[in-house]
Amino acid sequence: MSKGILVVVSGFSGAGKGTVMKRLMEKYNNYALSVSVTTRSPRPGEQDGKEYFFRTREEFEELIQKDALIEYAQYVKNYYGTPRAYVEEQLNAGKDVILEIEIQGARKIKAKNPEALLIFIAPPSMAELKNRLVGRGTETPQVIESRLHRAAEESQGVEEYDYLLLNDELEICVDELHRIIQSEHSRISRNLGFIQELRKEASQLG
Ligand SMILES: Nc1nc2c(ncn2[C@@H]2O[C@H](COP(=O)(O)OP(=O)(O)O)[C@@H](O)[C@H]2O)c(=O)[nH]1
Ligand SMILES: Nc1ncnc2c1ncn2[C@@H]1O[C@H](COP(=O)(O)OP(=O)(O)O)[C@@H](O)[C@H]1O
Questions:
Q1: Are 76 and 86 in contact (CB under 8 A)?
Q2: Which residues bind ATP (predicted)?
Q3: Superfamily the domain 6-34+96-205 falls into
Q4: Three-class SS of residue 69?
């Protein structure tokens, strides 16, 4: 069985990554969504092990020491990281795995896994981004400021991604994301084993 595709999805805070991921998982049964570890506090309604594994700084640093994270980064005063075991297990089982992570993490993943597919989710405008971030009502005005500042920095790195995905109409965005990942399965470089088999058969026939 061929390995699954490692998909990285990034985007400014408030662009709608979480919303798109939730809908993608409801609508399509194809993907394994990695749950990250974070030192930030849970928002109302967030559950440990569902949106994130919520851990203390000491616990997080222990995971780093044990090499239990495939990447981690600091984002607006908190640590965020991707647990190694789940990702490796799912990829080996042939599942496409999605990491919803910020740009420093995306760079680390790309450096270690050049075949990873990197997708950047953008809002229709920065004014709409601010509306969504304020409308979500989960951060203080000060944290919103820091996140908008971070968005300006992150906007400089968008060219490092393979695809730009606009999250204007949610359903269109979700379907487009599914389509991009599915077409990636047809890439020649991901099908070399099958091509070798066809060549072998062809030489026997001819
Ligand atoms: N590098 C890295 N970034 C992560 C990870 N998990 C989440 N993030 C990113 O951390 C940032 C902050 O996440 P969060 O506090 O949930 O805010 P939100 O993106 O506004 O919902 C976002 O850009 C996430 O994509 C991770 O495991 N590694
Ligand atoms: N396509 C969309 N159109 C309008 N609002 C959206 C859309 N996608 C997400 N939102 C809203 O924007 C806010 C931020 O979305 P969220 O998924 O939390 O973003 P992120 O995970 O990127 O920080 C939420 O209140 C969400 O309901």
A1: no
A2: 11-18
A3: P-loop containing nucleotide triphosphate hydrolases (3.40.50.300)
A4: strand
pLDDT at residue 1 tops 80: no
Percentage of the chain modeled with pLDDT above 90: 97
Length of the chain, in residues: 206
Task: Specify the pLDDT at position 116.
Answer: 98
Q: In this structure, which residue's CA is closest to atom 23 in ligand 1?
A: 102
pLDDT tens column, 23-49? 999 999 989 999 999 999 999 999 999
Helix (H) or strand (E) holding 72: strand 69-75
CB 82 within 8 A of CB 99: yes
Partners of 37 in beta bridges: 53, 81
Q: Taking residues 102-108, report their average pLDDT.
A: 97
Structural contact between residues 56 and 48, judged by C-beta atoms closer than 8 angstroms: no
Residue nearest to atom 22 of ligand 1 (CA): 102
